[in-house]
Amino acid sequence: MALTVRRLAPTEWRSAFPIISQLRELTEEEFLRRVQRQTFSGYELVGAFDGQRIVGVMGVRPVHTLARGPHLHIDDLVVDKTCRKTGAGRALIDFADKEGRVRGMGAIFLDARQEAIPFYERLDFAFHAAPSMKKPLA
Questions:
Q1: What DSSP designation does 112 have?
Q2: What pLDDT does 136 receive?
Q3: Taking every annotated instance into account, which residue ranges of this chain make up the domain N-acetyltransferase (predicted)?
Q4: Rounded distance between C-alpha atoms, residue 109 and residue 105, angstroms
């Protein structure tokens, strides 16, 4: 599989929805609204392509915090279920790695589902000492 990884233009966001919907239960309209809203804080969608076919998607955003310093955060990395184990996930991570370095970021952070942890560990990700906490407000 000859893969190309690049940022998606807003006109291509809709094409990412079938991939994202394999991970997130959102309507296409809500997905597009959320992506548009998140772009105001630097969020970008990145796609992995096999020719003209999109086979993987991830969101990336720059973050600067006191605790973690400047870092790139990966949101929702997902590869089409028919294209897993083809190198698409690794190609997306490689893109994020290069992007983080170009931006002068000190690390890449992401939230991982339990079944994806071995994949990330093979790519030199490690558990972070500070667990995330959540308090629902609704």
A1: -
A2: 84
A3: 3-138
A4: 11
* Paired tokens of 9: 């233009």
Mean pLDDT of the chain: 94
Please, what sign has the CA dihedral across residues 124, 42, 4, 15? Answer: positive
d(CA 61, CA 125): 18
Q: Residue 85 in 3-state DSSP? A: coil
Cβ atoms of 74 and 60 closer than 8 Å:
yes
The answer to whether the pTM exceeds 0.85 is yes
> Strand pairing of 69-79 and 53-65?
antiparallel
Going from N- to C-terminal start, the domains of the chain cover 3-122
The domain made up of 3-122 is a member of CATH 3.40.630.30: yes
Under 8 Å between Cβ of 19 and 79: yes
User: Residue 109 — φ and ψ, nearest 5°?
Assistant: -115, 150
Q: What is the pLDDT of residues 98-114, one digit of tens each?
A: 999 999 999 999 988 89
- Mean of pLDDT values over 12-36: 97
Residue 133 confidence (pLDDT): 80
Dihedral, 16, 7, 115, 38 alpha carbons, nearest 10: -80
